[in-house]
Amino acid sequence: xxxxxxxxxxxxxxxxxxxxxxxxxxxxxxxxxxxxxxxxxxxxxxxxxxxxxxxxxxxxxxxxxxxxxxxxxxxxxxxxxxxxxxxxxxxxxxxxxxxxxxxxxxxxxxxxxxxxxxxxxxxxxxxxxxxxxxxxxxxxxxxxxxxxxxxxxxxxxxxxxxxxxxxxxxxxxxxxxxxxxxxxxxxxxxxxxxxxxxxxxxxxxxxxxxxxxxxxxxxxxxxxxxxxxxxxxxxxxxxxxxxxxxxxxxxxxxxxxxxxxxxxxxx
Length: 267
Known about the structure:
Blueprint: H1 4-11, H2 15-22, H3 30-43, H4 49-56, E1 61-66, H5 72-85, E2 91-96, H6 101-112, E3 118-121, E4 141-145, E5 155-156, H7 160-173, E6 178-182, E7 194-198, H8 203-213, E8 217-220, H9 223-235, E9 242-247, E10 256-260
Parallel strand pairs: 1-2, 1-3, 3-4, 4-5, 6-7, 6-8, 8-9, 9-10
C-alpha cells in the first residue's frame, strides 16, 4: 500500500508538502496541490483517517440521539449527517429513545464511556444541564436539534412558522383564501386567510378531510406526506388539490410546488 513517502517521491515534493495537502492546509501552491493529487490517484493512496484522529488526540465517534428514525424529518436529517460526516472518517452511532427520558439517560451513560467527540441530539429531557452529569461540556460539543430545551448552549432548528407564512402569502396572492395545513401542530400565522388544519394519520383520512372541506390548496411539512396524499387521491380516482410542500431535497416533481430547506446550517 502506498505511503506519503511514495506520494512525495512520485510528485517530486517534500513530505511536508504532501502532509499539508492531505490536511487541506492553505500554504501550498496550486501547482504542488495538483502534483500531489495526481500522485495520490496514480498510486491509489488512502489516508488512514482513524490514525489521524488518534494522533490529534480526538475521536471519530459521533453519537446521534433521536426519538425515532421513522419520521421523515429524522430520517432525512440522519441521511444528511451520514452523507456529510462519513466521507470525512467519522463514525455515526445512532441511539433511539422512543421519547422515553429514562431510555435517553441510559444511552447518555453508555455514550459517555465511548469517547464521542460530540453529540447531535433531539432530546426528550426537560433540561440540558442533565448532560453535565455524563459529559465534560467543555471538551464534548453537544448540539440540540428541533426541540429547544432549558439551558441548551447549542440549539438549532427550522422556523416552520416563518416558512409556512411565506407559502401562505404566496397562495393568498393567487386568490385562495381558504388553505388546508396538514400538520400535527398548529401555527399562529397573521394573514387574512382561513387556515384549516388536519393531523396526518392516514393519507385516505386526509383525502376525506380535503373533500369534506372543499379545499383547493393544501400545505404539507414534508414531501413524504405530499406523495402519500397525492397517491391516495390517485387510488380514489380523484383529482388532488394543489399541493405545496416543504422539502429537504431539491425536487423537480411537477405534482407539487416545493419549498426547499437545507440541513447545511447544522453540518
